[in-house]
């Protein structure tokens, strides 16, 4: 069975220090990337909250809170407004025909209590 | 401190000696965690988008069902409902879908008032203005994705076939801000008369009724009263809708995540195999360490560090890659599959909504078991007689 062994260390180089340095550099790189992701996320959220009044004005004007994620079928475009079984109305019991149905199915009955 | 440092150096050296296996394992973990986390990130961001706008939705929406399908509601039902106790106002709504052959897409046509309340949502142009002051002109406000697709700007004419197939000339008065694309991508807002013409809805009938309540907590009582007054109605309650969204997203995002589970399971199995089985050389290494005076605790600690560096490194890389994939690149591939055959994609700029606690629990679910499983064989090997282990007994 072959095992990999470290070769003899070069004069002047300390393998222990090199390993620790690699760990510190790797950890620092992860921390920097994570901080960048957090900063980016915070900026996105700030932009979203600045746009919120405009979005709410649109929802108030139309009364339709659904997101325009998929415009093909009405049960995907406006799941809140579609009646139960809208996705399978022509073929009861059928699977959704649109892959978006994997994310946004006809919602659970939203009718009152 | 020195002892800890020495253990760390030893563990890193051990990882380096098995560099290819360690890197493959870390990358595999990164891929599996990353794919799973992307689905979670997207679902959380979309759920937050829905939640943000639910407050602006009507307390109750009353529709009419005929033969199991939505039907137009007679406008005079409005006076019946206005008289119900707890109802503050009832607004007739006129909206629907129109298939535009030129772009092979459905657009959502809705009638709105002329009011200036929509001005902040517009990127260019101005609100519709009062219907009676415009003569024969049919002004329209269009969504950003539709405007981009048809290269529309304020002042442009848009000839659109109505429900009967006759062309209706709309005058674009404003284009919605791309920041509202998730709400308005495919929207055409027009005056009531234009909406009736486009959708083919006769006078005296509307799509549905939106009810504002004096106290939203009375929704179940008013819903029951509405159902009694209008026997063929379906009442959508905003509070119940909120619950329905939670369930829909939890269930459906769970389904997407479940599709990735076999991959995650395979990776975890591979990692389990890597950590739980000790090769001959690793057993001998532990024997040598014991022979030169290492205690069981030292061996376990070195093994713990080794497992932690690989799994935590892999999982952190995976989470970071998932963030970049979902929020910087817009989840190409996954979003297309999730959002369906849509022709007017909004390309939303989603804001991350996953909490730190969720991130830590996701990472903990992968790192915890793998680190735990790495300790058992190391503990067993370190309990053996060093002489026996070194001689390969």
Please describe the topology of this protein.
The complex is a heterodimer of chains A (113) and B (393).
Chain A: H1 15-62, H2 74-77
Chain B: H1 2-17, H2 19-54, E1 60-66, E2 69-71, E3 73-74, H3 77-82, E4 87-93, E5 95-100, E6 105-111, E7 122-125, E8 139-142, H4 144-150, E9 157-161, E10 167-176, H5 181-184, E11 187-190, H6 192-199, E12 205-206, E13 208-213, H7 219-229, E14 233-237, H8 238-276, H9 280-291, H10 296-328, H11 334-339, H12 356-382, H13 386-390
Parallel strand pairs in B: 6-11, 8-10
Antiparallel strand pairs in B: 1-2, 1-13, 1-14, 3-12, 4-13, 5-6, 7-10, 8-11, 9-10
Helix pairs in contact in B: 1-10, 2-8, 2-10, 8-12, 10-12
Structure description:
The complex is a heterodimer of chains A (about 110) and B (about 400). Chain A has about 110 residues and is mainly α. Chain A is elongated. Chain A has helices at about 15-60, 75. Residues about 1-5 and about 110-113 of chain A have low confidence and may be disordered. Chain A is built from 2 helices and no strands. By secondary structure, chain B is an alpha+beta fold. Chain B contains 13 helices and 14 strands. In chain B, a hairpin with a 5-residue loop joins strand 9 (about 155-160) and strand 10. In chain B, helix 2 (about 20-55) crosses helix 10. The longest helix of chain B has about 40 residues, at about 240-275. The two termini of chain B are about 35 Å apart. The chains are: A mainly alpha (about 110), B alpha+beta (about 400).
């Amino acid at each position: 069975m072959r095992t990999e062994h470290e070769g003899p260390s070069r004069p002047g180089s300390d393998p222990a220090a090199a390993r620790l340095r690699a760990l510190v550099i790797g950890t620092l790189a992860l921390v920097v990337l994570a901080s960048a992701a957090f900063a980016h996320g915070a900026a996105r959220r700030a932009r979203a909250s600045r746009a919120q009044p405009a979005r709410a004005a649109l929802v108030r004007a139309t009364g339709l809170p659904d997101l325009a994620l998929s415009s093909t079928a009405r049960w995907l475009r406006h799941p809140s407004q579609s009646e139960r079984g809208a996705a399978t109305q022509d073929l009861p019991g059928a699977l959704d025909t649109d892959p978006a149905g994997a994310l946004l199915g006809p919602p659970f009955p939203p009718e009152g209590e | 401190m020195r002892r800890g440092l020495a253990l760390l150096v030893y563990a890193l050296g051990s990882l380096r000696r098995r560099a290819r296996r360690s890197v493959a394992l870390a990358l595999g973990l990164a891929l599996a965690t990353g794919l799973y986390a992307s689905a979670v990130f997207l679902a959380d961001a979309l759920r937050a988008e829905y939640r943000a706008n639910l407050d602006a939705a009507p307390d109750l929406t009353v529709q009419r069902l005929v033969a199991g399908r939505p039907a137009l509601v007679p406008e005079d039902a409005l006076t019946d409902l206005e008289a119900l106790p707890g109802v503050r106002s009832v607004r007739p709504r006129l909206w629907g879908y129109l298939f535009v052959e030129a772009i092979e897409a459905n657009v959502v046509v809705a009638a709105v008032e002329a009011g200036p309340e929509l001005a902040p949502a517009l990127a260019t142009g101005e609100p519709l203005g009062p219907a009676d002051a415009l003569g024969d002109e049919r002004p329209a406000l269009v969504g950003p994705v539709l405007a981009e697709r048809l290269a529309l700007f304020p002042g442009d004419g848009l000839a659109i076939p109505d429900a009967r197939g006759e062309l209706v000339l709309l005058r674009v008065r404003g284009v919605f801000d791309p920041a509202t694309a998730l709400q308005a991508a495919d929207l055409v807002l027009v005056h009531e008369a234009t909406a009736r013409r486009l959708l083919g809805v006769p006078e005296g009938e509307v799509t549905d009724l939106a009810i504002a309540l004096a106290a939203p907590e009375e929704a179940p009582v008013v819903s029951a009263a509405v159902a009694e007054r209008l026997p063929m109605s379906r009442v959508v309650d905003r509070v119940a809708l909120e619950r329905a969204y939670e369930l829909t997203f939890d269930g459906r995002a769970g389904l997407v995540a479940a599709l990735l589970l076999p991959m995650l399971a395979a990776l975890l199995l591979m990692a389990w195999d890597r950590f739980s089985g000790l090769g001959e050389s690793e057993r001998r290494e532990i024997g040598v360490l014991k022979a030169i005076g290492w205690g069981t605790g030292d061996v376990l600690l070195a093994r713990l560090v080794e497992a932690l560096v690989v799994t935590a490194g892999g999982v952190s890389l995976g989470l970071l890659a998932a963030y970049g994939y979902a929020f910087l690149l817009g989840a190409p591939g996954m979003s297309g599959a999730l959002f369906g055959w849509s022709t007017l994609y909004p390309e939303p700029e989603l804001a991350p909504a996953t909490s730190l606690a969720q991130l830590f629990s996701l990472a903990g679910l992968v790192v915890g078991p793998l680190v735990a499983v790495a300790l058992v064989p190391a503990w067993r090997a370190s309990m053996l007689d060093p002489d026996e282990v070194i001689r390969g007994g």
